[in-house]
Design goal:
Distance between the termini: 28 Å
Helix content: over 70%
Structural class: mainly alpha
Order of helices and strands: HHHHHHHHHHHHHH
Shape: globular
Number of helices: 14
Number of strands: 0
Radius of gyration: 19 Å
Strand content: under 5%
């Protein structure tokens, strides 16, 4: 299997662990607060690399950072209302969004990748059927999916033009700044800023993990791998995220995953394999 595919699968595995952690953190922190705190931690880690970035890298990092931050904040907000596995499944609807957005922007659709995306969406549908819905949480998470679909497309188009470490660093530092301003504005007129240290204490370890590993580490690996993988193919691989999220949600939060959900997860795995399968038409013709 291609090394870049393995890297993206590792990214989805780690991201799968973040859903139950964010769900637990949302008991005391809002979606904006979780996002601001995790990226402040990640920003401290990546600041030395960001200081070495060129003006062009800062420009593209700003665009990517704004789109990614919308995705992260709406996802964390949605988790205040829906289960972690349902959030992961709705987020992964970007699997189908990416090919069609790419087509609108002048890209091409591979029949193989489109079939894999459709199969992954069927699997995601079966998985999401397991959890109860909430219109606010579902709507926020759909915005997250759309923002993330745009992010994946932009990253595939711009990653090859920059050093992946500095590109990830500029994104993270800018996201930390944007999220901090967002959190401060959202906290005006209430006691949320005054009580933030007390409310952060129970979620401190998850916030550190989300910042250092899930944000700084995985955004770097994502920037490395997507230099060589198309957005359409990458998003099929990202469809593994809800499978891992369901597994960790079941292990850590005792969230249910029945037979239908397991079947959906299996379909997503098959979709990822299909996206990577190397068909050899010449060999088939020779055999005939």
């Amino acid at each position: 299997m291609n090394l870049n595919v393995v890297l993206l699968l590792l990214v989805t595995l780690v991201w799968g662990t973040t859903f139950p952690l964010m769900k637990a953190a949302s008991a005391t922190l809002s979606g904006v607060e979780i996002s601001a705190l995790r990226f402040l931690v990640a920003g401290v880690v990546m600041l030395p690399f960001a200081l070495k970035a060129s003006r062009a890298t800062w420009r593209d990092g700003a665009v990517l950072g704004v789109v990614a931050l919308v995705s992260y904040v709406t996802q964390a907000f949605g988790l205040e209302y829906i289960s972690s596995n349902r959030s992961a499944f709705i987020t992964s609807l970007n699997v189908l969004m990416v090919p069609f957005i790419g087509l609108v922007l002048g890209g091409r659709l591979s029949a193989q990748v489109l079939a894999a995306a459709a199969l992954a969406c069927i699997g995601i549908g079966l998985l999401s059927w397991e959890g109860g819905g909430h219109w606010i949480g579902d709507a926020a998470t759909l915005v997250c999916a759309l923002a993330y679909a745009v992010y994946v497309i932009l990253l595939s188009r711009r990653a090859a033009q920059h050093n992946p470490r500095t590109l990830a660093a500029t994104q993270i530092v800018l996201m930390a700044g944007f999220a901090l301003v967002w959190m401060l504005v959202a906290g005006l007129g209430s006691d949320r800023l005054a009580t933030l240290p007390t409310r952060t204490a129970p979620a401190l370890l998850p916030i550190i993990y989300l910042g250092v590993i899930a944000s700084a580490g995985m955004l770097f690996l994502q920037a490395v791998a997507q230099r060589h993988i198309s957005a359409e193919k990458a998003t099929v691989i990202y469809a593994m995220e809800p499978v891992f999220a369901a597994l960790f949600g079941w292990l850590w939060l005792a969230e249910s995953l029945g037979l239908r959900g397991a079947a959906g997860g299996a379909l997503v795995v098959v979709a990822v394999i299909l996206s990577e399968w190397r068909f050899n038409p010449r060999a088939s013709t020779d055999a005939a």
